[in-house]
Amino acid sequence: MTILAKRPLACLVLCLAMTGCVSSQDIAAADNQECIELGFEPGTEAYGNCRLKLREIRAMERQTMAVENTFWYGRPYWW
Q1: Distance of CA 60 to CAs 17, 33, 42, 64, Å?
Q2: Which among 35, 49, 70, 71 counts the fewest CB atoms within 10 Å?
Q3: 3-state secondary structure the chain
Q4: Residues 56, 62: Cα–Cα separation, whole Å
């Protein structure tokens, strides 16, 4: 494989790796927008509860994904 042939492949791999990166600021902005669209006003207790609920949902989704990955890929070798 020549250098020119490897370059598009390397670019593709890099682009795919970067698509999974989301900063905490991006998540906070999305949560803020979601709660505002649902009718909650920033600075109120209800708005704070909305933000906390979204955080809980993400934590539950991460836990579910971890369990599913364990199912598909098996346990780590040290267990």
Answers
A1: 24, 21, 24, 6
A2: 71
A3: CCHHHHHHHHHHHHHHHHCCCCCHHHHHHHHHHHHHHCCCCCCCHHHHHHHHHHHHHHHHHHHHHHHHHHHHHCCCCCC
A4: 10
Each domain of the chain, given as residue ranges in start order, spans 23-73
Closest by CA to 41, choosing from 51, 30, 53, 26, is 51
Is the pTM value of this prediction over 0.70? Answer: no
What's the CA gap between 11 and 13, in Å, rounded? 5
